Structure formats: structure tokens, C-alpha cells
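INFO  loader      accepted 1 record
INFO  loader      residues=181
INFO  predictor   begin
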Amino acid sequence: MNVAPPKTLGELFLGFLSIGARSFGGVMPWAHRVMVEERRWVTEADFAETIGLCQFLPGPNIGNASIVYGKRWFGLAGALVAFLGLFALPFVWVLALFALYADFAATNATLRAVVTGVGAAGAGLFIGTAIKLGRALVRRPAALLLITACFLAAGIGRVSLFLVLPISFACALFAARREWL
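INFO  predictor   done
INFO  writer      dumping C-alpha cells
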């Protein structure tokens, strides 16, 4: 796949603004769709690798990725522009929705049901994106083994991420040096 990163800070801002504007229920599905499928700024593998890196950093994954990509393409100005583009509209919407929800949620069962339904839809979007990200790793048995081990440890075994992340990082580093990843 040919990639064509954004050519201007304005294009970068509008791209991340479109991700933030459509990301109800989760940013990851829209970020993948915009950056990989629609605008073709990055490859599937690059997106998966960058998100993997950003999972180790504190803060929201896509927020971190916006900083990484913005810095890669336009330096510090790009990092700021991408991050602000991503969070501009959601910031305003969250404040407005919270004001409405705080006033009506206690007395309105329908509103509470809608919020529950939106949460379920968000979970579905997240699972769909995880499957898309996994496609880039399917031909790498070491990556699949690492994914399974992390899922079993954190998801099933309830092992703290403070333990899982450094151990999985060390295993990934070892596998990469042996060219298994």
C-alpha cells in the first residue's frame, strides 16, 4: 500500500479533527479508518506498531499516537496540532453532554438505557478494531503468542498491568532481536 502522509499542518489538524468528531464510543475504530483506510497516511502494520507502542505510555492510546505521528511529520508543531485536532470537538461535546446528563439521568430511565446501549456499541467497535489490528500480526507466531499470553495474564488471570507490561515488553524486545517479530 502506498502511503501519503499529510502535506500541511492544516491537513493534519482536519484529519485528527475528523477522527475526534466521529469517535463516539471509542476513538480507535475511527482513527484506524481515517488514517489507514481513507487518507492512507500510514500502513496497517505501522498503525498497529504505533498503537502497540502507545499502549505502554500513560494516557489515551490515540492521543499518544496523534503526538507520535504529528511529531514524525511536522515536529513539535505537528504534535501539538494533531493532539488539539483530536480533542477539540470531544472536549466541547463532553462538557455539553455532561451538563445535560447530570440534569436528567437521575430521573430518566430511557436516558440511562441509551447510555448503556452506547457503551455496548463502543465495546463492539473496540473488538472490531482489535481484530483489524490483529490482521497485521497474524503471520507472526511470536506476536500471536505474546498477545495470547497478555490476554490470559491480564484479562483472565487479572494480573496487574504493572507486571504484565514490563514483562511483555521484555519478551517483545527479545523476540524482535531474534527477528521472530
